[in-house]
Amino acid sequence: MKDRYYLAKAITLVESTRKDHKVEAQQLLSLIMDAQHERAKEIGDSAPTFRIGLSGPPGVGKSTFIERFGMYILSQGHRVAVLAIDPSSSKTGGSILGDKTRMPELSYHDDAYIRPSASHGTLARNTNEAMILCEAAEYDICLIETIGVGQSETIVAEMVDMFVLMVPPAGGDEIQGLKKGIVEISDLIIVNKADGEFANAAREAAAEYTSALKYLHPSTSVWNPQVLRVSAKANSGMDNAWKLMQEYYHVMKRSGELSKKRGEQRRLWMWRQISSELLDRLNSDKEICELVDQLEQKVFNGEMTSGTAADHVVDIFTRKYSDAK
Amino acid sequence: MKDRYYLAKAITLVESTRKDHKVEAQQLLSLIMDAQHERAKEIGDSAPTFRIGLSGPPGVGKSTFIERFGMYILSQGHRVAVLAIDPSSSKTGGSILGDKTRMPELSYHDDAYIRPSASHGTLARNTNEAMILCEAAEYDICLIETIGVGQSETIVAEMVDMFVLMVPPAGGDEIQGLKKGIVEISDLIIVNKADGEFANAAREAAAEYTSALKYLHPSTSVWNPQVLRVSAKANSGMDNAWKLMQEYYHVMKRSGELSKKRGEQRRLWMWRQISSELLDRLNSDKEICELVDQLEQKVFNGEMTSGTAADHVVDIFTRKYSDAK
């Protein structure tokens, strides 16, 4: 199913909250998983695709980078899909990630597929499944874009092979809103806008990130996180960025770390989804919701321990379920 | 209840897994919370105590530090309780955190209370509740000790006012097993063993941590994480450590950040405990456990999506509950 129309329809299906759509989506995914699994055995490669996460604060130039970088990897014979997780779109009304108008050239290319984030913010589960669909549609490179605030970048880091952080040519303390820990989980830090009047600032920023990284602990023993300067606007550095990413991909693959990482990510997501579905069911009960609100306030004020409140909620939830029948 | 005997009994009660003990424990905690809440209103201070987390790799000298530092703050007129979260004790059979024999002077002092970690590893919920009990027993400083591996230091960071990381006088890349992100969540980094032959190495390490911190993002706008050299063995630097900690405490308190932080921590723990209790109930069902094992393997191998597996598990769990009646 190389057709973009069918891919878009399939993604809409997995994003749907309608019960019959959900059943259909799971059937479709199951067929795909079987086929992928067979194919993996056939070609002796459980990860023939490359999943790249790209995060960075608003205004750093992610769209321009994706446009240029995407065109570059297309020129290398790849097919690229761009997905987005955007926790801000519903709340702040900020710019829409993955917006096609921000990547005009890439979005019209036959071998590229861009999926803007849904207006309500795209759920992690949907993105995980959309990625599987894109890979089935023979996009061998998946780029997942997010902004570096809130929880979204941790979520993205936990569903991709490589996590790339894009930063402006400025000191770390000048960057607003970057989440704690994001530097430490990055496999590659790209300093953008490294040209013209910012060339020197970018050099300094890159040097400082390099020394900061020296003191942080890499997530895998086979790869030391790198720092790279590019200018998306001037279209320079795309080749180096891709070279470093490929290096990472091959090192991770040869060492067996990549398939281990993917397996562990899948297991993590399974448990995360079990938790979140249980909490969803809990929160979809109006009466329990009201109780939770009251208890939450008490807990926040220090009038009740977290444990006591949790016991209450779980007791009532499980009692309700037993009564439901 | 200033009596250590009753405090120890109360903590044993909240740690118990027996159902009647649990009920008793919740009643006791509820009485205490009410009293604390009343007192907070009376004195106009919702956080009259100070909760300090201390983490660091094995062998860094945490026990010696706690012994000296504890004696120092006792000399300043405080009462100190030392608790431990130790994820390793059950698995690796490593040294027991909070072991009294490792803090001989402190453990015999009337104004100190040391609770060694239970042999099965101490659960976060128990530690949260033990801390409340210690505060009710008029220990105004709570030190929560953990080793800097696994998830324990994140857990500790999320239950204390200030998170302190202790490191050896060595380069970041030479420290084995320190968890990613731990440097970034630290409010204070203490380089220990900064004397004798290690004096220079400690100075270098401190300088490198200082520049690494410059590039990371502080968790609160009112405090910039600090780096300090001490020598627990030579009993030097305890006054400076305490001075910095008090500075942090007062800045956080005056700005209102401390009570906000505690409220948010309590809320976080409530949700975390709801999740973990739901998962506990799920995992205590033998049949579901077997299913989960099978699905987990399939998910790990890439034969099934995480979402599909999660749906299965949750469906069967909730169906079982409806049937249970």
UniProtKB/TrEMBL annotation, chains A, B:
One of its GO terms (cellular component) is cytoplasm. Gene3D superfamilies: 1.10.287.130, 1.20.5.170, P-loop containing nucleotide triphosphate hydrolases. SUPFAM superfamilies: P-loop containing nucleoside triphosphate hydrolases. InterPro entries: GTPase_ArgK (IPR005129), P-loop_NTPase (IPR027417). Signal peptide: none annotated. GO terms for molecular function: GTP binding; GTPase activity. NCBIfam families: lao, PRK09435.1. PANTHER family: METHYLMALONIC ACIDURIA TYPE A PROTEIN, MITOCHONDRIAL, METHYLMALONYL-COA MUTASE. Belongs to the SIMIBI class G3E GTPase family. ArgK/MeaB subfamily. This is 7790_t:CDS:1.
